[in-house]
């Protein structure tokens, strides 16, 4: 099996929001699906590679935030590919529970108040639901690598680790000023929201120790292992940010027990 090609799909320009295609000899694995309506950009990217949605063999959603899971249901319908995700974020994928957001700074708090991040998307149930400690071998889908749980950004966050040493880690970290952009693109930073910085630091250190040398991000990137290691060392000393409840995304019959802002 040849080393796969990794193609970044800019859902929002300048690396502000990214999806990634892992292109193997026998098909493609899509990592993250962008905001609602992103299926057109992903289909266009596939066409540029001489491929189509029929070549997508698996859809991996790294976590339940709308800029990563927003088009998952639509892309499954169009491609026929199964969705894999982690059970820790299942209530949010199904839109039956309001998601929480731990802001990492004042910009994040202002961003939350715009309501953009709590925009609802078409609910779905993953076809393959991983549990803690479970590893999904990607070779049956034409890619030499694996997907596994890497909690910390959210409880159900997961990453893709390729045998080539490339990792797609969703929002375990970000880069660039105001995410992506043109300035300090090789400098790691916290994403706008992050549940448990110490858990994220542990996962990043484990990925580096396991031989991952290039990290592909949902916002900005890619970053080399040395910069990831530096960030992880700093991150392990940080505290969780202020928590917000995204009541607007809950499609339950009953209101959540606690809809307040902490």
Structure characteristics:
262 residues, six-stranded mixed sheet, 7 helices, globular
What can you see in these coordinates?
With 262 residues, this protein is an alpha/beta fold. It has a single domain, classed as 4-Layer Sandwich (Metallo-beta-lactamase, Chain A), CATH 3.60.15.10. The protein is built from seven helices and 16 strands. The chain has helices at residues 39-48, 66-69, 72-79, 90-93, 106-114, 197-209, 225-235, and strands spanning 5-12, 17-24, 27-31, 56-60, 83-86, 99-103, 128-130, 135-137, 145-149, 158-162, 166-168, 174-175, 188-189, 214-216, 223-224, 242-246. The strands form four sheets. Strands 1-2-3-4-5-7 form a six-stranded mixed β-sheet, with helices on one face. It has a six-stranded mixed β-sheet with strand order 8-9-10-11-14-15. A two-stranded antiparallel ribbon has the order 6-16. Helix 6 packs antiparallel against helix 7. The protein is globular and about 45 Å long. The N and C termini lie far apart (50 Å). Residues 248-262 have low confidence and may be disordered.
Summed up, the domain count is 1
Name the strands of the widest sheet in spatial order.
1-2-3-4-5-7
Q: What's the pLDDT, averaged over the residues?
A: 90
Tell me the structural class: alpha/beta
Biggest β-sheet: count, sense, barrel? 6 strands, mixed
Radius of gyration: 17 Å
Low-pLDDT residue intervals, each spanning 5 or more residues: 248-262
Termini separation: 50 Å
What is the annotated CATH architecture? 4-Layer Sandwich
Share in β-strands: 25-35%
Give helix and strand order, one letter per element, not per position.
EEEHEHHEHEHEEEEEEEHEEHE
CATH topology group: Metallo-beta-lactamase, Chain A
- Identify the CATH class: Alpha Beta
């Amino acid at each position: 099996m040849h080393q796969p090609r990794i193609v970044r799909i800019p859902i929002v320009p300048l690396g502000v929001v990214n999806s990634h295609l892992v292109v193997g000899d026998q098909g493609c694995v899509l990592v993250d699906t962008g905001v609602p309506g992103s299926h057109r950009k992903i289909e266009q990217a596939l066409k540029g590679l001489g491929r189509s949605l029929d070549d997508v063999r698996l859809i991996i959603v790294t976590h339940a935030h709308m800029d990563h899971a927003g088009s998952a249901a639509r892309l499954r319908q169009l491609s026929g590919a199964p969705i894999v995700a982690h059970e820790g974020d299942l209530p949010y994928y199904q839109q039956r529970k309001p998601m929480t957001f731990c802001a990492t700074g004042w910009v994040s708090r202002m961003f939350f108040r715009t309501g953009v991040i709590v925009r609802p998307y078409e609910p779905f149930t993953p076809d393959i639901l991983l549990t803690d400690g479970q590893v999904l071998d990607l070779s049956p889908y034409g890619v030499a690598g694996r997907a596994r749980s890497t909690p910390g950004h959210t409880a159900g966050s997961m990453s893709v680790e390729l045998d080539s040493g490339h990792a797609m880690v969703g929002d375990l970290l970000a880069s660039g000023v105001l995410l992506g952009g043109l300035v300090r693109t090789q400098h790691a930073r916290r994403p706008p929201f992050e549940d448990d910085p110490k858990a994220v630091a542990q996962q990043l250190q484990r990925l580096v120790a396991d031989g991952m040398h290039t990290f592909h991000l949902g916002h900005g990137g890619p970053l080399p292992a040395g910069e990831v290691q530096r960030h992880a060392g700093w991150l392990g000393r940080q505290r969780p940010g202020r928590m917000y409840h995204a009541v607007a995304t809950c499609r339950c019959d009953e209101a959540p027990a606690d809809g307040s802002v902490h």
